[in-house]
Amino acid sequence: MSLPSSAVRNDWTRVEVRALFELPFNDLLFQAQQVHRANFDANAVQVSTLLSIKTGACPEDCKYCSQSGHYDTGLDKEKLLAIQKVVEEAKNAREKGASRFCMGAAWRSPREKDMPYVLEMVRQVKALGLETCMTLGMLDGDQAGRLAEAGLDYYNHNLDTSPEHYNQIITTRTYQDRLDTLARVRDAGMKVCAGGIIGLGESREDRVGLLTQLAILPAHPDSVPINQLVKIPGTPLGDVEDLDPFEFVRTIAVARILMPKSMVRLSAGREQMDEALQALCFMAGANSIFYGEKLLTTTNPEAEADRLLFKRLGLSPKVEQAIAHPEGDALLAQARAQAAAGFFDPAAHQGQPLWRDAMVN
Ligand code: SF4
Fold first, then answer.
1. Which residues line ligand 1 (CB under 6 A)?
2. Domains, the chain, ranges and CATH?
3. Global confidence as pTM
4. Residue with CA at minimum distance from ligand 1 atom 3
5. Could you give the 3-state DSSP secondary structure of residue 288?
6. What is the pLDDT of residues 34-85, one digit of tens each?
7. 144: region left, alpha or beta (phi > 0 left; psi from -120 to 50 alpha)
8. Whether the Cβ atoms of residue 291 and residue 49 lie closer than 8 Å to each other
9. Counting atoms of ligand 1 from 1, which one is nearest the CA of 66?
10. How far, in Å, CA of 186 to CA of 169, rounded?
């Protein structure tokens, strides 16, 4: 199969996507590398930081999630964090070289009384010169417009799985609800971050369906997080069968080929991957990660391990898009210097229980 490496298409068919999944592994990775190199620096990986601004007691019943109020996962709940606390964490992240700060709340959708706080968080984090991203659940058009006006750059809203498999994973909302929120985010002018979770007990055809749905959106998501299920005891998917790791790599590679200009993010589940598997994912076209310290019920690879892995693979954190801000040049120079020195200090967040998993909303 030949493919123009930079062509952006929104008319992918399931037949084509299935054919990519069925390629011999080496052929698929070769093609993904070609597409990757035609569109990105193959040795640069964007590093984002995620903070949970409201944790647990979510009314949704996502069968994989530690934060759902439907399951007893032993999670400590937290109310919406104070604005000042969020700003402090964003400053910490900036000092460690992060260019984007993502804030996640375990909500079905934001309540009106929470909106002023959320909007102020966006304004203040943005004022630090960071790109801002939020994941707050479903939005109506008015909420999307107000978030955009406050300066929110990205909105994360995952499709999770294929349309056919969706109601086996979540029953409290529909696939169409998700697509509607994504449309409102796009219409409000924000960038879209949308991906899914692999290893939910879905079939390959469901993975084909998920990636096809993402690739036929009117505009490809700017960021495509591909999560590997983190099995949480107490959730219905707590003991689902393991997925073949090569199937995960295939999913990354197909996402890279279908959405050539999107950042493909290796998100939740990285802790469960050994370094060789992570390296294969980078080779398959993943070019964005979350990093963090101890998470709430799951862990992300320790910061030091990430730094060493980057060094061994000759990867560098992508900091160039750091900053449209009055202090932008200085911040960029600082971020570059930090990147050159090793992109974060693992001691910096010790004892802080605030860094959460990427797999919310
Ligand atoms: S994934 Fe998001 S919406 Fe679903 S239960 Fe967890 S926090 Fe709630």
1. 58, 60, 62, 65, 67-68, 106, 137, 360-361
2. 47-341 (3.20.20.70)
3. 0.83
4. 361
5. strand
6. 999 999 988 888 877 777 888 888 888 899 888 888 888 877 777 888 899 9
7. alpha
8. yes
9. 6
10. 25
